[in-house]
Design goal:
Blueprint: H1 6-14, H2 18-38, H3 53-56, E1 67-69, H4 70-73, E2 78-79, E3 103-105, H5 106-121, E4 124-130, H6 135-146, H7 154-157, E5 183-190, H8 243-257, E6 261-263, E7 270-273, H9 289-293
Parallel strand pairs: 2-4
Antiparallel strand pairs: 1-3, 4-5, 5-7, 6-7
């Protein structure tokens, strides 16, 4: 995308109608935030540096041709990829996440592009937390769930759930729809977007269902809980979520369902594009630009 000097942008914007000017101004702000928060940075020490037995003796698996980087389809969607950071329910970078990069099948990415185009006109942006998820990341979750002594992030992400119940209650499973490439975890951000304060390990944790002004600061609208909150309050239509919080959930749900996504009833943030190009395939290529650019 061609970048213009500030002076040219302002003079052009000033000649636009008021409604269009508002969208252009919001888009400029959003691009600045997205560039700062969503740039794909190389990870010099990948979390899965010791590769699985399946890949140690050969090349890493690569993405099929119809997988794309979301930023190449719509660079205005904010990317806050939680699993490449330590701000997640495990408390460490997750295996397979080598860059801050959202990868999806092209149909799913293009549907998000259409949703973003609609939302920008209404003063909102999408923000994605997770997209394609390698099987090795799911395996990491399973290992963590079986380690009952590791309660590092319990206070924030599963304050009222005993860790012995994570499998039985459906919070952790050995397979994830994310690994098929058409599932995304996301939220809404009211424009102009505000940068999210970086997470620093060791800071006091607050339950994910606490009032929004008490939870870890997030640029999203108030959905009643934070992302990845292991609690029934995260169920999209939980009757205890009312008022503006419920309206925000329904706005996100309605927007995406109009464009072919299906919401997981237990997680307000979880949507799968249908029909899935790979309904029965669980991929394991790393979340990395090289998984796309290195395709043979």
């Amino acid at each position: 995308m061609t970048r213009h000097s500030t002076g040219t942008h302002l003079s052009t914007t000033a000649r636009l109608p008021t409604a269009v000017r508002a969208v252009v101004t919001a888009l400029g702000t959003l691009l600045a935030v997205t560039t700062a928060a969503g740039t794909a940075h190389a990870d010099p020490t990948p979390a899965d540096g010791a590769r699985t037995a399946a890949t140690r003796n050969g090349p890493e698996p690569e993405a099929p041709e119809d997988f794309v980087a979301l930023g190449d389809v719509n660079p205005t969607i904010i990317e806050e990829m939680r699993y490449v950071t330590r701000h997640n329910f495990v408390g460490e970078r997750i295996d397979g996440y080598r860059q801050r990069l959202c990868i999806l099948t092209r149909p799913a990415a293009e549907a998000l592009h259409r949703a973003q185009t609609r939302l920008l006109r209404q003063g909102y942006s999408l923000k994605v937390y997770d997209c394609y998820r390698p099987q090795r990341a799911v395996d990491h979750f399973v290992r963590w769930a079986k380690d009952l002594d590791d309660q590092t992030m319990k206070t924030e992400f599963y304050p009222d759930v005993d860790k012995t119940r994570l499998f039985a209650d459906g919070y952790i499973a050995e397979k994830s729809g994310h690994s098929r490439g058409s599932t995304v975890d996301l939220t809404l951000v009211r424009l102009p977007a505000k940068p999210t304060r970086p997470y620093h390990p060791g800071l006091p944790l607050v339950p994910c269902y606490a009032p929004q002004d008490e939870r870890f600061p997030d640029s999203s609208v108030d959905m009643g809980t934070g992302y990845d909150c292991f609690d029934t309050l995260s169920h999209t239509l939980d009757p205890r979520i009312q008022g503006r919080q419920r309206a925000n959930r329904l706005f996100l749900k309605g927007t995406l369902e109009d464009l072919g996504f299906v919401n997981l009833a237990e997680e307000w943030w979880h949507f799968t594009f249908k029909p899935e190009p790979y309904p029965d395939t669980f991929f394991d290529f790393p979340v990395s630009a090289t998984s796309l650019t290195g395709r043979r």
